[in-house]
């Protein structure tokens, strides 16, 4: 009797509490189904309104995605037109991508009526998020410092934290460095800004220093003269700059020699590899040193 009286309530009297009570009652399955249908019909205006809002929000989202792509292209073209440095371009584009998508998400959230809730949640969780992302924020600050102070730029050859190579990109949190053996090393920006950075690209010339070992019985003066003659005949070595072959250190078993010469920065690796090959050949053929 209780349930029968409930299903004849008018639409504006039905509520979630009544639906819950009916579903938990001892009524038959048909009666529960009837009451559920009647409840849904009583909420049809609200359901239709929400469906319309959801469809509109989805429409805004898909249109917004296209607008975001268009804005990213405009931002990129604007920086290219003004000849903005490549590193700054990568950094700004990373920021722009995140920023444009956040704006789109908040617009869709406001359409769905949950914008204020999201802002409140973000605000209340700000401290926890900040603590959790402490390392990432440090890397973000490091990226800003790299772009502001410009210790290096994209395309320059650097040595930092034991890594040596050409800078490929400077992103929001990381810097990518390509080594001479074609490896890409990803270094956190925070680590870079707290380390010693060696930028060899800024200088037109670079000193080449090669260490090698010879036994005590080797004829040091003859070896020095042969290697100096090789350097004098190398067109990539600056002939008007100091060049020498010296004894750098004495160990219990061998003598550590050191070859020094000045070369153009862009020729550094070619000359290094060539001289190492010459040193090996001289030691093997002239002095029988394996």
Write the layout of secondary structure elements.
Blueprint lengths: L1 H5 L9 H8 L5 H14 L1 H38 L4 H26 L3 H10 L1 H7 L1 H16 L7 E4 L2 E8 L3 E5 L5 E5 H5 L3 E3 L5 E11 L4 H13 L11 E7 L3 E11 L3 H18 L5
Antiparallel strand pairs: 1-2, 1-5, 2-3, 3-4, 6-8, 7-8
Helix pairs in contact: 4-5, 10-11
In words, what does this structure look like?
This protein is of the alpha+beta class. The protein folds into four domains: 2-42, no CATH class; 47-124, no CATH class; 145-199, SH3 type barrels; 205-285, Alpha-Beta Plaits, CATH 3.30.70.100. It contains eleven helices and eight strands. The strands form two sheets. A five-stranded antiparallel sheet has the order 4-3-2-1-5. A hairpin with a 3-residue loop joins strand 7 and strand 8. The longest helix has 38 residues, at 44-81. The radius of gyration is 36 Å and the shape is elongated. Residues 1-13 have low confidence and may be disordered.
């Amino acid at each position: 009797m209780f349930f029968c009286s409930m299903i004849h309530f008018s639409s504006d009297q039905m509520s979630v509490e009544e639906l819950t009570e009916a579903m938990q009652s001892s009524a038959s399955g048909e009666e529960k189904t009837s009451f559920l249908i009647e409840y849904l019909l009583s909420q049809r205006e609200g359901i239709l309104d929400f469906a319309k809002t959801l469809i509109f929000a989805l429409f805004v989202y898909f249109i917004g995605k296209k607008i975001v792509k268009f804005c990213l292209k405009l931002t990129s073209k604007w920086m290219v037109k003004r000849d903005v440095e490549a590193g700054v371009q990568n950094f700004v584009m990373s920021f722009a991508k995140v920023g444009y998508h956040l704006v789109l998400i908040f617009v869709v959230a406001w359409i769905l009526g949950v914008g204020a809730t999201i802002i409140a949640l973000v605000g209340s969780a700000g401290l926890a998020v900040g603590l959790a992302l402490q390392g990432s924020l440090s890397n973000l600050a490091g990226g800003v410092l790299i772009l502001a102070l410009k210790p290096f730029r994209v395309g320059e050859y650097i040595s930092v934290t034991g890594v040596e190579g050409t800078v490929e990109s400077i992103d929001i949190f990381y810097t990518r460095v390509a080594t001479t053996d074609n490896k890409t090393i990803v270094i956190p920006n925070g680590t870079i800004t707290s380390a010693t950075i060696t930028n060899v690209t800024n200088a037109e010339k670079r000193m080449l220093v090669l260490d090698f070992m010879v036994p005590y019985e080797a004829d040091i003066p003859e070896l020095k003269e042969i290697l100096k003659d090789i350097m004098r005949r190398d067109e990539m070595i600056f002939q008007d700059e100091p060049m020498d072959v010296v004894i750098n250190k004495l160990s219990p078993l061998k003598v550590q020699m050191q070859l020094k010469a000045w070369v153009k920065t862009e020729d550094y690796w070619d000359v290094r590899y060539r001289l190492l090959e010459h040193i090996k050949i001289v030691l093997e053929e002239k002095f029988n040193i394996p």
